[in-house]
Amino acid sequence: MGSSDQQWTKKTFELNTGAKIPAVGLGTWQSKPNEVRQAVKAALDAGYRHIDTALAYGNEQEVGQGIKDSGVPRSEIWITTKLDNTWHHVVEEGITSSLKSLDTDYVDLYLMHWPSSTNPEDKKKHLPDWDFVKTWAEMQKLPSSGRVRNIGVSNFAIKNLEKLLNDPSCKTVPAVNQVELHPNNPSPKLVDYCKEKGIHATAYSCLGSTNSPLAKDQTLQKIADAKGKSTAQVLLMWGLQRGTSVIPKSVTASRIEGNFQLDGWSLTEEETKSLSSLPDRFKVCGDGWLPVKVFFGDDE
Ligand SMILES: NC(=O)c1ccc[n+]([C@@H]2O[C@H](COP(=O)([O-])OP(=O)(O)OC[C@H]3O[C@@H](n4cnc5c(N)ncnc54)[C@H](OP(=O)(O)O)[C@@H]3O)[C@@H](O)[C@H]2O)c1
What we know:
Blueprint: E1 12-14, E2 20-22, E3 26-27, H1 36-46, E4 50-52, H2 60-70, E5 78-83, H3 91-102, E6 107-112, H4 132-139, E7 148-154, H5 158-165, E8 176-180, H6 188-197, E9 200-204, H7 218-227, H8 231-241, E10 245-246, H9 253-258, H10 269-276
Parallel strand pairs: 3-4, 4-5, 5-6, 6-7, 7-8, 8-9, 9-10
Antiparallel strand pairs: 1-2
Helix pairs in contact: 1-2, 2-3, 7-8
The structure holds NADP nicotinamide-adenine-dinucleotide phosphate (NAP).
Subcellular location: Cytoplasm
InterPro entries: AKR (IPR020471), Aldo/ket_reductase_CS (IPR018170), NAD(P)_OxRdtase_dom_sf (IPR036812), NADP_OxRdtase_dom (IPR023210)
GO molecular function: aldose reductase (NADPH) activity
């Protein structure tokens, strides 16, 4: 991995189910209405074959339209969507809603968005008689229906993964854990833990998200300048070379194209190391808005 002839835009990572997730996908969180349809089409035109969405983003319908606009056959595209926190006790309704909005018969990957079974009546409260272990028990039933090819989790810290994997009701090891990963939040312990358990890690907010502080990072800028690459391209390469898939979000056609120019070059071990040891730390997605704590500071 990491050799300069690597074709990252064609690369897939094999999941514990045998399925192959394309290494680079398009993120769609915070893409405004009327922007995401054309962004999805632009990405598919540029060669992306992996789109990441969620019921909570409120854009599944537009994502589905963008896919149709592109003319790329459904069978060639990897679609990930996510079960919203207030739908944990109604998993069947959650997937039915997503498939209808996306206007597709199946998704390639269905993730539990957060390990929080939030009460739909009062989002500051957790459901009294439910938790994510029960949600997973329901999600495990989905692949046999053919409407979901793979199931996984998101925002699971080591502590919650342990709780899930050690529960007797857990028969399926999640295929994926989608978590925040970038050089200011590298979570090496979590990445290693996932690897050890056969869970593929997908890096979200891999560019540092909206108004990323990484855009001003001098170490990153120097590496990008020396290689004649954009800071975004270097961040994506850092994620790919540590074995994670990356799902950069953009609604800007030129950036969507640039973020996919990842073939035929690589970062040296020294460059990777210096990016992995930046002194600054920040997390885009905290857990303060949830009724339960889901991050415990033990993943770094
Ligand atoms: N599972 C979860 O809980 C979770 C949480 C967060 C995110 N995600 C997923 O991960 C995806 C990516 O994370 P994210 O949206 O937080 O952030 P991101 O992909 O790290 O960053 C997106 C931001 O970077 C800008 N950008 C993109 N390419 C650029 C480039 N080449 N140069 C300069 N700026 C660039 C985008 O602007 P423009 O769009 O204006 O071009 C946008 O403001 C999400 O969209 C979503 O699909 C999942």
